[in-house]
Amino acid sequence: MTIIIKKGENPEKVQNKIQDFLNMKESEKQLRKEKIIEATFGKIIFDKSKTPEAIQRELRDEWN
Fold first, then answer.
1. Contact 33/52 with Cβ under 8 angstroms?
2. Handedness of CA 37, 39, 42, 43 (dihedral sign)
3. CA-to-CA distance for 19 and 25, rounded, in angstroms?
4. How far is CA 28 from the centre of its chain?
5. Please, are residues 37 and 52 in contact by the beta-carbon 8 Å criterion?
6. What is the pLDDT of residue 21?
7. CA dist., res. 21 & res. 43, Å (int)
8. DSSP for 6-62?
9. Are 23 and 41 in contact (CB under 8 A)?
10. Distance CA 21, CA 2 (A)
11. Per-residue pLDDT tens digits for 7-50
């Protein structure tokens, strides 16, 4: 996506364009992350309320 900012354009409109762009990039990043997790861990469902460190600690403790 390309953001075109015209000279004299309303600053709020410019800010909205930039925010939309950032939101789109963040959603793409999240989709890539989900694909990587799916490819790595398969169908394991992780508790979204836990931090990655808590999940890692829990998985580590199960191996002991």
1. no
2. positive
3. 10
4. 7
5. no
6. 92
7. 31
8. -TT--HHHHHHHHHHHHHHHHHHHHHHHHHHHHHHHTTPPPPTTS-HHHHHHHHHHH
9. no
10. 8
11. 888 999 999 999 999 999 999 999 999 898 888 877 777 788 98
Tokens standing for 26? 């963040």
Does pLDDT of 64 surpass 70? no
Residue (of 60, 62, 63, 33) closest to 48 by Cα position: 33
Residue that has been written with the tokens 């829990």 in this structure: 58
C-alpha span between 60 and 50 (Å, rounded): 15
Q: What residue type is 41 in one-letter code?
A: F
Residue 63: strand, helix, or coil:
helix
Token digits for 39?
Answer: 């490819």
Q: Which amino acid type is present at position 37?
A: I
